[in-house]
């Protein structure tokens, strides 16, 4: 039997929740004096949850509206509540509402973050919702990158527009929009290269793609999705910083929230940037990507009932 979505999520957040639960252990029954509150706050920061959320939990605990000798589980329930508040505001699936069609989704991110796999998973998700999907192989830097997307397109059963290795990505995007418009495609998802020499080159490449898109449809790209690798922890945050500057990110997808991920960084990203987090990925199969439930994830992080809903 394959591992369930919930079990994969548990895996991806294990490092965060184990750390959090471990650091809070033994606080049950202790008075919540300044020193204990400091310990709780530090434990949350050490779990990658971000300083603002940690401070909010501390404030809630210090309010004194709880029993003075609060039990450990009580502390974790407060953590879950505060994390849920942060995540609730950003957990938003991508809506397909562009008119005229197609809705163009540009997918960006550093190399290896999971862009191409995420595109396949997104295409599968949209197909399941009965949208007509097309892919564009805008990462022309490696023949393997084009081949990888082609293989996915065949497996999922969606059309793809490609060009030669080393070819002009903007030209491929131009052709793709033309074709997608002609056959009434709902969603066009564009892969891009993460492997460019430097920031300037990356900026130029993405700007060129955006210019070409805008000429065909001023509203395109409708979405600029930054794909982040959850195993890189805090590094994911600096990637948001860079890509916001070079490409105008409209939303995030966090991948690799399975195995050795440091899932807490999801909360830190939500708290710091407030960008919508459209979906999370928990593996390499096409059905390993979904929008997420803020309550389920926050309970997993806080180590409550294995995160299950009551
Ligand atoms: N465990 C796990 N692996 C993933 C996930 N998403 C992608 N991968 C793997 O991570 C590796 C890189 O994924 P790609 O989709 O090729 O990443 P990319 O950003 O397109 O990489 P470049 O094209 O080289 O820039 C591959 O081996 C994927 O199978 C995920 O959610 N979980
Ligand atoms: Mg790729």
List low-confidence stretches.
none
Level-1 CATH class name of the largest domain: Alpha Beta
Q: How is the biggest beta sheet arranged?
A: 8 strands, mixed
Instruction: Enumerate how many helices there are, as a single number.
Output: 11
Helix content: 40-55%
CATH topology label of the largest domain: Rossmann fold
Characterization of the model:
The protein is an alpha/beta fold. It folds into two domains: 3-87, Up-down Bundle (Four Helix Bundle (Hemerythrin (Met), subunit A)); 101-292, P-loop containing nucleotide triphosphate hydrolases (Rossmann fold, 3-Layer(aba) Sandwich), CATH 3.40.50. Helices cover 49% and strands 12% of the residues. It contains eleven helices and eight strands. The chain has helices at residues 5-24, 34-46, 51-62, 72-88, 115-128, 143-156, 169-183, 199-216, 235-247, 265-273, 294-301, and strands spanning 103-108, 133-136, 160-161, 187-191, 223-229, 251-255, 277-281, 289-290. It has an eight-stranded mixed β-sheet, with helices on both faces. Helix 2 packs antiparallel against helix 3 (51-62). The radius of gyration is 21 Å and the shape is elongated. The two termini are 25 Å apart. The structure holds guanosine-5'-triphosphate and magnesium ion. The site of magnesium ion has 5 residues, from helix 5.
């Amino acid at each position: 039997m394959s591992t369930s979505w919930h079990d994969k999520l548990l895996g991806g957040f294990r490092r965060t929740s184990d750390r959090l639960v471990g650091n809070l252990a033994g606080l049950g029954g202790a008075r919540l004096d300044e020193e204990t509150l400091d310990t709780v706050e530090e434990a949350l920061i050490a779990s990658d949850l971000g300083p603002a959320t940690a401070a909010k939990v501390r404030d809630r605990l210090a309010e004194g509206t709880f029993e003075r000798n609060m039990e450990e589980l009580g502390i974790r329930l407060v953590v879950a509540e505060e994390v849920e508040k942060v995540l609730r505001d950003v957990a938003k699936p991508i809506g397909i509402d562009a008119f005229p069609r197609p809705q163009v989704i540009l997918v960006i991110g550093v190399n290896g973050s999971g862009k191409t796999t995420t595109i396949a998973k997104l295409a599968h998700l949209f197909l399941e919702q009965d949208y007509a999907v097309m892919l564009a192989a805008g990462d022309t830097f490696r023949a393997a990158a084009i081949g990888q997307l082609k293989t996915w397109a065949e497996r999922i059963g969606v059309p793809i527009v490609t060009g030669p290795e080393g070819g002009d990505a903007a030209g491929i995007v131009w052709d793709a929009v033309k074709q997608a418009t002609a056959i009434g495609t709902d969603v066009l998802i564009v892969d891009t290269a993460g492997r460019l020499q430097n920031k300037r080159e990356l900026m130029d490449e993405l700007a060129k793609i955006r210019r070409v898109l805008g000429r065909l449809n001023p509203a395109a790209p409708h979405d600029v999705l930054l794909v982040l690798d959850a195993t890189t922890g805090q590094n994911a945050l600096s990637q948001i910083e860079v890509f916001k500057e070079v490409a105008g990110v409209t939303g995030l997808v966090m991948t690799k929230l399975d195995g050795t991920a440091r899932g807490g960084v999801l909360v830190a990203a939500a708290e710091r940037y407030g960008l919508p987090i459209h979906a999370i990925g928990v593996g390499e199969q096409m059905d390993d990507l979904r929008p997420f439930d803020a309550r389920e994830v926050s309970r997993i992080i806080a180590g409550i009932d294995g995160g299950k809903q009551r």
